[in-house]
UniProtKB/TrEMBL annotation:
Domain annotation SLH: ranges: 97-161
Coiled-coil features, chain-numbered ranges: 176-203
BP GO annotations: carbohydrate transport
Entries under Gene3D superfamilies matching the protein: Carbohydrate-selective porin OprB
UniProt similarity note: Belongs to the OprB family.
Classification via NCBIfam families: por_somb (NF033921)
Protein name per UniProt: Carbohydrate porin
GO molecular function, one term: porin activity
Chain spans, region Disordered: 33-62
Highest taxon, organism lineage: Bacteria
Keyword annotations: Coiled coil, Signal
Record Pfam families: OprB (PF04966), SLH (PF00395)
Taxonomic lineage from the root: Bacteria, Bacillati, Cyanobacteriota, Cyanophyceae, Oscillatoriophycideae
Length: 597
């Protein structure tokens, strides 16, 4: 007898002794063996954990029926089978019940039992076809959540329908026992969540400040002789007579804006915008006219200072209140009905962005109201005073005696693709502060009576039609009826008549915009603008009505390089600058790179 045989006998002898003690000399124990039906292979470890009288699925996918408590020893007929069974017992001893499993697998008895309940009672309907889809493992807590849902569903159907079968109740009782700890934990978590939800409802919002940034790098230049009609002391002398040429050089400049939006209730916003910039304005002193200004220009030597400062909140469901303290303009809180109004990502020219009527006054403090009109639109009302004047207590300054404007702006949306804006502005400015055109027109359109105090009733109409997702047509018309509020003499060496109180002047402007969103890629924008910058069409003072008309033509293409970076090359042409056909055509070109974060 070799060593292997001795080792085998030592391993099986205790088992043989145990068999003898249990089975005795009689072979009748074979009658007590469980009756397995449709069994084609030895039972797996799962068979040991079956409950008497319960039918379920074994690992081979066949139905197993257990009549009595299983006794595995009755099936052992040889030493080889005993060794195989002993190995299976060792595996089984590692996991003796479902409660010892860290995860529940689709092949586990508990998983299949719950799946059966789900499919028959519809207690979990998380999938479109209403099944549990038992092909994925689930954590014990996820499983317990499903079991809990089934228990609730079964309780609901007991009174009317008589409830589940005895077999189902047996399965449920066992599942409850196996997952008692998880069910208790789940209920505890639900209680904790309910407590936290109640706390959140009592304290729905905490003060939050969000930072948004925008940085612009720009290369720009103008081309064409300086317009002489406004630069000269005599408005009738053109650039050729003055001998003025193209005095501008190519610039590389920047603008930085850091916007802090703070909310205290979740329905309000305190906006504080910090700004530093050094983009020189292509205005009268350089080109002879403000018509050549960029849409994103301005300079403070890159010193960081407070720009926009205002607070807005919901007074009611349909009423929003805006309190402006510094550098706020109507376009900051009203819909100007222009898809290319943004200075950082829209039109490259100041004139091409929006109706100049909505620039009165430019950089203000005051009060605004937005009144919701349901689905048809919104009515905005505002009183704004120039920021510099509003904080100055000196004569002809302050909140009501400096440059100011009262605004009413109605936006109607009769259909989803159409917006119509109607604007009225009552404007006043003391001597030396008049700017009717918002720095988009020539000298007479901006200051029709020179340094004389001026008031105006201005009317605007804006239209936007979204033809398709990739094509938008928009535009505006503006009419300003200005009146002198005092007598005024012409500056030295200026020809024409002096200004008398109540002298009148009429100024008009208009433009059409074509926008092509996502042209060539998501986020891209191709834009075209054609229009007439503000022009004096009639004037009570001799020689101040302008016989010629300036024309503005613009094209730009914004390429969205990444979600945060866009590059916009573009150019615009001014024909008859300063509304004088004797002036040479001027061209302004730029490449604007915008970073947003």
């Amino acid at each position: 007898m070799n060593s292997k045989t001795i080792g085998l006998l030592l391993r099986v002898s205790p088992v043989l002794v145990g068999m003898a003690a249990l089975l005795g000399p009689s072979a009748a124990s074979a009658k007590e063996a469980p009756n397995y039906q449709a069994q084609t292979q030895p039972p797996k470890a799962e068979a040991v954990t079956q409950t008497k009288g319960v039918k379920t699925s074994n690992t081979s996918g066949e139905v197993l029926s257990v009549d009595t408590e299983p006794e595995l020893f009755a099936q052992v007929t040889s030493v080889d089978e005993l060794s195989q069974q002993q190995a299976e017992d060792q595996l089984q001893s590692q996991v003796t019940s479902v409660s010892q499993l860290s995860d529940v697998q689709p092949t586990d008895w508990a998983f299949q039992a719950l799946q059966s309940l789900v499919e028959r009672y519809g207690c979990i309907a998380g999938y479109p076809d209403g099944t549990f889809r038992g092909n994925q493992a689930t954590t014990r807590y996820e499983f317990a959540a499903g079991l809990n849902a089934c228990l609730d569903q079964l309780l609901n159907i007991i009174p009317p329908g008589g409830g589940p079968t005895e077999e189902d109740l047996a399965v449920i009782r066992r599942l409850q026992e196996e997952f008692a700890a998880e069910l208790a934990t789940l209920r505890g978590r639900v209680d904790a969540l309910e407590a936290r939800t109640a706390e959140l409802e009592a304290n729905q919002f905490s003060t939050t400040t969000k930072l948004k940034g925008e940085v612009i790098f720009a290369v720009a230049d103008t081309f064409g002789n300086e317009a002489g009609g406004i630069n000269s002391a005599n408005p009738d002398i053109d650039a050729g007579d003055d001998g003025l040429g193209d005095d501008t050089q190519t610039i590389f400049a920047d603008r930085v804006r850091l916007t802090l939006d703070t909310s205290f209730t979740g329905k309000d916003r305190l906006r504080t915008r910090l700004q530093g910039r050094n983009i020189t304005q292509f205005r009268r002193g350089l080109t002879g006219t403000n018509m050549t200004r960029l849409g994103f220009d301005g300079t403070n030597g890159n010193d960081i200072g407070i720009d926009d400062l205002y607070y807005q909140f919901q007074a009611s469901d349909n009423v929003e209140v805006i309190i402006a303290a510094n550098s706020t303009e109507p376009r900051d809180f009203i819909d100007v009905v222009s898809p290319i109004a943004s200075s950082g990502s829209g039109s490259i020219s100041r004139f091409g962005r929006l109706n100049p009527v909505l620039r009165q006054p430019d950089g203000s403090a005051g009060l605004g109201l937005n009144l919701g009109l349901g689905d048809i639109g919104e009515l905005s009302l505002a009183y704004l005073a120039d920021s510099g004047s509003a904080s100055n207590p000196a004569v002809k300054n302050g909140l009501f005696n400096g440059q100011n404007a009262a605004l009413a702006h109605l936006v109607l949306e009769p259909v989803d693709a159409v917006k119509l804006g109607l604007s009225y502005v009552r404007y006043y400015a003391p001597a030396g502060e008049v700017n009717l055109s918002g720095s988009t027109g020539d000298f007479f359109a901006t200051e029709p009576f020179g340094d004389t105090a001026t008031s105006a009733n201005s009317f605007g109409a804006e239209l936007q039609f979204e033809v398709s997702d990739s094509f938008i047509v928009s535009g505006w018309y503006g009419l300003m009826l200005a009146s002198a509020q005092d007598n005024g003499a012409l500056p030295a060496n200026r020809t024409g008549d002096a200004v008398n109180e109540d002298d009148d002047a009429t100024i008009m402007t208009g433009a059409v915009q074509f926008s092509f969103p996502d042209l060539g890629g998501d986020g891209n924008l191709f834009g075209l603008v054609a229009g007439i910058p503000p022009k004096v069409t009639s004037h009570d003072v001799t020689d101040r009505a302008e016989g010629d008309t300036s024309y503005h033509f613009e094209a730009f293409y914004r390429a969205q390089v990444t979600d945060n970076i866009s590059i916009t090359p573009g150019a615009f042409v001014i024909l008859n600058p300063a509304n004088d056909s004797d002036n040479d055509t001027q061209v302004v070109g730029t490449i604007r790179t915008t970073f947003k974060f």
